[in-house]
Amino acid sequence: MSTAAPRTAGPDHLWSVDEHLDDILATVRPLEPIELQLLDAQGCVLVEDVTVPVSLPPFDNSSMDGYAVRVADVEGASERYPAALEVVGDVAAGETDLLRVGPGQAVRIMTGAPLPPGAETVVPVEWTDGGLGEGPVTGMRARSLAPEGATGQVRVHRPAGPRAHVRAQGSDVRAGDRALEAGTVLGPPQISLLAAIGRGTVRVRPRPRVVVLSTGSELVQPGEELGAGRIYDSNSFSLTACARDAGAIAYRVGAVADDADTLRDTIEDQLVRADLVVTTGGVSVGAYDVVREALSSVGDEDEPGSGIDFRKLAMQPGKPQGFGSIGPDHTPLLALPGNPVSSYVSFELFARPAIRTLMGLTDVHRPRTRATLTASGPLTSPKGRRQFLRGRYADGEVAAVGGAGSHLVAALARANALIVVPEDVESVAPGTDVEVVLLG
Questions:
Q1: What is the pLDDT of residue 144?
Q2: Which residues contact 283 (CB under 8 A, 6 or more apart)?
Q3: pTM value?
Q4: 68 phi and psi, to 5 degrees?
Q5: What is the pLDDT of residues 351-405, one digit of tens each?
Q6: For residues 257 and 240, is the Cβ–Cβ distance under 8 A?
Q7: Measured between alpha carbons, how far is 55 from 196 in angstroms, rounded to an integer?
Q8: What's the pLDDT score for residue 142?
């Protein structure tokens, strides 16, 4: 969702990385909250606190298969002098009609079953003869195979203290506690907790729908034959994976040929399922840079704030960028460069924060840290550009991976960080403390 119009500047204005990012984040707004079923809400962000309506566990229950007894009846029990108790019945998980445990009695109890009245502790079955009149057993036989296990006599070989092996009511969370805070991303543990406290639905901001498409008549889909002068389309796969990693529901569109009308029609067809559109390629100043040609004039005079602004950024890689909104709903669109490393770095710096903003998160950036540069020689950087070098980070040290070329995909696959070289630095010596963006 986009509201405010992106800023524009003269064609010769060189935008800083921070200016461009600030413009994106000032324009993109979180998606409106909706109520979703629990599994549909996985990966979404809560918009309100969730309060516990019922304590967990809701009642005292056994954490072991064994016997519910009174403490005094098993005090001093040993294998040589076992405590002999009368078994008066079973209590299984889900049981509601509970037997009372009196002096000298025991109830066979299963894991998760309510602690019966009169019982003060639970003796694990391994501390007993299981009602068989022999030595210690390793477990209970199925009730259908040993109906006598629920009656007769059991010998207990070890004592148990008060409330041993008993899960107390409310020992996990108590009614009225705050289970989850607004802003929490719902993963499997959070979904489990919501189900455990009886929530069937939850109010969240939905995962953004991101459409990714690449441009270029030279692109061939992986799995197809590669003709002369052609290359495989890797960018649309890379950026779709990046969008999913950021938390979005991402749709990959096959490469669009270098034709402005075709590109415009394709994007318009995709708007029905897009909260954000990301294109890659065709944003520079070449004669075949179709994205710039197709989208430079899409703004509607009757739709204030619409249109795409193409810019030059003081960064390497990723100097050419485009940003704005398109269509009647002002769907945000990020136009990224076509070189694989440029598109990936641009996505991490600009598209990922936009997706996280749409989700309603407050911390939208990759984590950053400081590290010592390890290298055989100094790293060079162009004056006036903020450079992002691929790096391998571990244990407080980072090493550059591959060269500065924006086409080196193999080096990118080995990187787990970006080394940030500021605009006013032209050379970084080994041993220098540098800023690192962590990608993993």
A1: 58
A2: 289, 291, 292, 310, 320, 321, 322, 335, 336, 337, 338
A3: 0.85
A4: -85, 125
A5: 999 999 999 999 999 999 999 999 989 999 999 999 999 999 999 999 999 765 5
A6: no
A7: 10
A8: 62
pLDDT tens string 215-250: 888 888 888 888 888 888 889 999 999 999 999 999
Bridging pattern class, strands 433-438 and 417-421: antiparallel
Structure tokens at 313: 């950024």
User: Cα(first)–Cα(last) distance of the chain, in Å?
Assistant: 27
Amino acid at position 324, single letter: G
Give the whole-angstrom CA distance, residue 143 versus residue 91: 12
Question: How large is the average pLDDT for residues 94-123?
Answer: 95
Residue type, 136: P
Q: Whose structure tokens read 């529901």?
A: 249
Half-sphere exposure of 365 (CA within 13 A, CB side): 10
Condensed to tens digits (0 to 9), the pLDDT of residues 109-158 reads 999 999 999 999 999 999 999 988 777 887 776 655 555 555 689 999 99
- How many Å apart are CA 62 and CA 426, to the nearest integer? 67
